[in-house]
Amino acid sequence: MASQNLTEAQLLKFELMDKGVVLSDDAVAALADLNQNRSLSPHDYASTSGVILNLDDDVWVNAPIELYNPNFVSRTPYVLDFDGGFAVEGAGLASRASFWPQPEYHGSTLNIGPLNHYVVTHGDRARLSPVRSCSMTCTFCNIPYDDPISVYTLKPVDAIVSAAKVALDDPLQPARHMLISGGTPKPKDIPWMQELYATVLEAFPGTQVDLMMVPLPGLFDLPRLASLGLHEVSINIELFNRDRAREYMRNKFNQGLDFYLDFIESATDELGPGRARSMLMVGLESIEDTLAGVRAIAERGGTPVLSPFRPDMSTPLKNEKPPSAEFMRETFERASEIVSEFGVFLGPDCPPCSHNTLNFATGVDGHISYPHDRPVMLGARG
Fold first, then answer.
1. End-to-end alpha carbon distance in the chain
2. Residue among 352, 353, 357 at smallest CA distance from 377
3. Where are the alpha helices (DSSP H) in 25-115?
4. Residues 335-380: tens digit of each pLDDT
5. pLDDT tens-digit series, residues 240-253
6. DSSP assignment, residue 356?
7. DSSP letter at 7?
8. How does pLDDT run across 315-340, given as a tens digit for each residue?
9. In Å, how far are 164, 185, 216 from 190, measured between CA atoms?
10. Which is nearest to 9 in space by CA: 105, 113, 87, 81?
11. Within the chain, how many helices (H) and strands (E) appear?
């Protein structure tokens, strides 16, 4: 296979996802000033534990930092520096950079409690979390381990809607679209979750709303959701290799691979091309297994999303390593060839939402476009 002609910034994205970045003293001082001493990262999920940067060529990356990933970032050669603007350099690669500041509401509390219990913004998207804890346990996911004594709870719907309004109206970093995700509900709570979906879709008719959830039997009434304006649905296979799936995510393994693939196909038929996607985790199975998953999703009209494994400090896999930059690049390049056979693309197609995925949001036409207003960024060098 011929290697793609990737730019320096694109190559740097793979390297940063592999090794992370350290902050120079000048960068720390600049961030303290520009970012007004807010936290550098939402760090709510393993895959969002870094700083969000926009590099040259409109490359978005979530770069791990030692504060949240000391298990593998401490020896990185890559440095975020500041000299009239941010730049990342190391190991023969360099790029200008700008920094994504968190919205003002992050870390704040209203009468409903801490807002981040309900909503967190990444890039230009707000993620709503309706369930505390999860009815499933996957050993690569931090949710079951961050708060192991937490009691499974359904959060108040009115509080979720109120928090979403705050995220959309944030004065610094307003969210442009939303994703309802988070812990998996118990089967008995499926009717509650269905009504939550309907309530949010009806409350925000002018905002694109996506759903990301395990396809529990009976959960998704696709015709109803489509009539309410659902934008996309994400059904994450995560691991295609059945042995790895049994080892790392037993609950999802027990549902069966065909169950997921059949749903992706039916969702594509109901919602239309490009509106059903599925994430595959890169690095916990072989490249060949992941590529088999890419093909299975693409041939059913779905959008494959490649998310690199990132070892979270709270999980049993904390001592594992992320996939190497070479591993990620090969997976991306070969996956790009596969999706082109089926006229689909590697998702997501929203550039800021590609910060923690192995793609460059080029879409099926090969070009980058912003479906929403660009997020506010800090420290760009002219």
1. 38
2. 352
3. 25-34
4. 999 999 999 999 999 999 999 999 999 877 888 999 999 999 999 9
5. 999 998 888 887 87
6. G
7. -
8. 788 888 999 999 999 999 999 999 99
9. 21, 7, 8
10. 87
11. 11, 17
Give Cβ neighbours of residue 72 (< 8 Å, ≥ 6 apart): 19, 20, 64, 311, 321, 322
β 276-282/303-308 pair status: parallel
Determine if the pTM surpasses 0.85. Answer: yes
Angle at which helices 157-168 and 190-203 pack, to 10 degrees? 30
1-60 pLDDT, tens per residue? Answer: 335 789 999 999 999 999 999 999 999 999 999 999 899 999 888 889 999 999 999 999
In 215-370, DSSP assigns E strands to: 232-234, 276-282, 303-308
d(CA 208, CA 201): 9
DSSP 8-22: HHHHHHHHHHHH--E
Domains of the chain with bracketed CATH: 8-99 (no CATH), 105-232 (3.30.750), 235-372 (3.30.750)
Residues 197/222, Cβ–Cβ less than 8 Å: no
Stretch 235-263: mean pLDDT:
89
